[in-house]
Design a protein that fits this description.
The complex is a heterodimer of chains A (272) and B (194).
Chain A lengths: L1 H16 L9 H9 L4 E7 L2 E7 L3 E6 L4 H12 L4 E2 L5 H12 L9 E2 L6 H10 L8 E2 H7 L6 H9 L12 E2 L12 H11 L4 H9 L4 E4 L4 E3 L4 H4 L6 E4 L2 H6 L3 E2 L14
Parallel strand pairs in A: 1-4, 3-5, 6-7, 9-11
Antiparallel strand pairs in A: 1-2, 2-3, 8-9, 8-10
Helix pairs in contact in A: 6-7
Chain B lengths: L6 H7 L1 H24 L2 H21 L2 H5 L3 H23 L17 H18 L3 H12 L4 H8 L3 H34 L1
Classes of the chains: A alpha/beta (272), B mainly alpha (194).
Chain lengths: 272, 194
């Protein structure tokens, strides 16, 4: 009995070894083909004027408001050191990614992405986190810092965002200062940032009003949850139930908990 | 060309140049993992491509020291496994998956011994496909693809002891299923004889 099952077990193992399936002949070539960078760029409409967008087969590599094509090509060369050719319009999936990310129209297609894999780890994480900020909302620099596990690196977050190679698509304009001022902007200065936020339906004056009065968070006295004021859950709170807080401490003392969607963090002391 | 052991060092030195050899060395493993999850050769090929493309991009994010110490086999197996499971989930959302395809349909004028081997192979493929998911991948990675237990633990993201017992239980289940199949066939033959 023992011998029989032992033989069967051996039979199972050699039987299994036979199951090794060779990969289809074209697989290696197909992978090599997909990894060969083919860089092209096109002009697209942006909320505050024309944008140049460069892309590989399936990813956006650079976005800029460069004055003319020559300037953009030079920007690309100095960043990647690869040749670049111009096309009339981006391929459909890249175009749809721009539509979704820049204009908030439709869902981002699965076939297209942004390529920031070449950036240093910290900068990449800052940009990935920033990409999560919903359209029409803003978060402080300190929020990005806290979310990526580097709560003290607030200034470094600002520097990383200033060098965002894919502005508009990665919405670095949705990161503002905790004190309500709009902060600086790499793709055209504070004026452009204000215009961009306005185009998304935010009122920059309103955005600055609460912090100017010392208010950093708002909550609802029915749910006893506090949020960043631009969080969609804060905005749907009716005026009668809205409560304001100057600090996280104040909100906690009042028995409120942090919103799990916008995940507000304490403002850094420097800004307070 | 050096053996696969030298690949991580060459990848660390120049990922673009060395990655082609990574694909040739591990394409059977990656394709096999995808095929076992998805049971659809066309989809498995697409997902295997994605797995290598993702792996290559991930290398761009790793520090050189980490690349040099990569254990490519379990690393690639894990990437392939995760992608294939995602693809399966996406596909299930759209339409139900088909049954297990027969890996090889026998040709009409095949010599008997070859036909028998084929039948045996199809039987094992069918029995393996019938194993619960948890055991199927563990058994296949260990005994079809030949990963070691530590590699297996890394690929499946589970403790070494757990994957070891999964493999043993899986093989025991296979064995029992094989015995049952033999008895069933013996029974059929007896009936035919009568």
């Amino acid at each position: 009995m023992v011998d029989r099952s032992l033989a069967a077990a051996r039979g199972a193992l050699s039987g299994l070894r036979e199951l090794n399936t060779p990969a289809p002949a074209g697989l290696a070539a197909a992978v090599a083909d997909r990894l060969r960078p083919v860089d092209a760029y096109a002009e697209v409409d942006g909320p505050i004027g024309r944008l140049y967008v460069s892309f590989t087969r399936d990813a956006i590599t650079l976005v800029s408001r460069a004055g003319d094509p020559g300037q953009f090509e030079e920007e690309f060369r100095s960043t990647f050191g690869r040749p670049l050719h111009r096309v009339a319009a981006p391929p459909a999936h890249i175009g749809r990614l721009v539509e979704a990310r820049v204009w908030g129209r439709g869902r981002p297609p699965a076939a297209a992405r942004v390529d920031i894999s070449w950036l240093p780890d910290f900068e990449r994480r800052v940009l990935e986190k920033t990409a999560e900020i919903p359209r029409g909302e803003v978060r402080p620099y300190s929020w990005v810092a806290a979310e990526i596990g580097r709560p003290l690196a607030v200034r470094a977050v600002g520097n990383a965002l200033a060098r965002n190679p894919i502005p508009f698509v990665i919405p670095c304009h949705r990161v503002v200062r905790a004190d309500g001022t709009i902060g600086n902007y790499g793709a055209g200065g504070p004026e452009s940032k204000r215009a961009l936020l306005q185009a998304e339906g935010l009122d920059p004056a309103e955005l600055a009003r609460l912090p100017a009065e010392g208010i950093r968070y708002t909550g609802s006295d029915t749910t006893r949850i506090y949020c960043y004021p631009s969080c969609r859950h804060a905005r749907r709170t009716s005026t009668g139930h809205r409560v304001s807080f100057r600090s996280v401490d104040e909100a906690l003392r009042a028995g409120f908990r942090a919103c799990r969607v916008c995940r507000p963090v304490p403002a850094p002391h420097r800004a307070a | 060309m050096d053996g696969p052991d030298a690949l991580p060092a060459r990848l660390a030195a120049d990922a673009r140049a060395a990655f082609g050899d990574v694909v040739s060395a591990y394409q059977d493993l990656v394709y096999g993992v995808c095929l076992r999850v998805l049971r659809d050769p066309q989809l498995a090929e697409d997902v295997a491509q994605d797995a290598f493309v993702n792996a290559y991009r991930a290398l761009g994010r790793y520090p050189t020291a980490r690349i040099a110490e990569l254990r490519l086999r379990p690393w690639l197996a894990r990437i392939a496994l995760n992608l294939a499971r995602n693809a399966l989930r996406d596909r299930k959302a759209s339409h139900a998956i088909d049954g297990v395809p027969e890996p090889h349909a026998p040709a009409a004028d095949e010599p008997l011994s070859l036909a028998q081997r084929r039948e045996e192979r199809n039987l094992w493929a069918r029995l393996l496909a019938g194993l619960p998911d948890r055991y199927r991948q563990a058994v296949a990675l260990r005994h079809v693809d030949g990963l070691s237990y530590p590699e297996l633990a890394e690929a499946l993201g589970r403790p070494a002891g757990t994957v070891k017992s999964d493999v043993h239980r899986g093989v025991a289940l296979l064995r029992a299923a094989y015995d049952a199949e033999q008895r069933r066939q013996a029974g059929l033959e007896r009936k035919e004889a009568v």
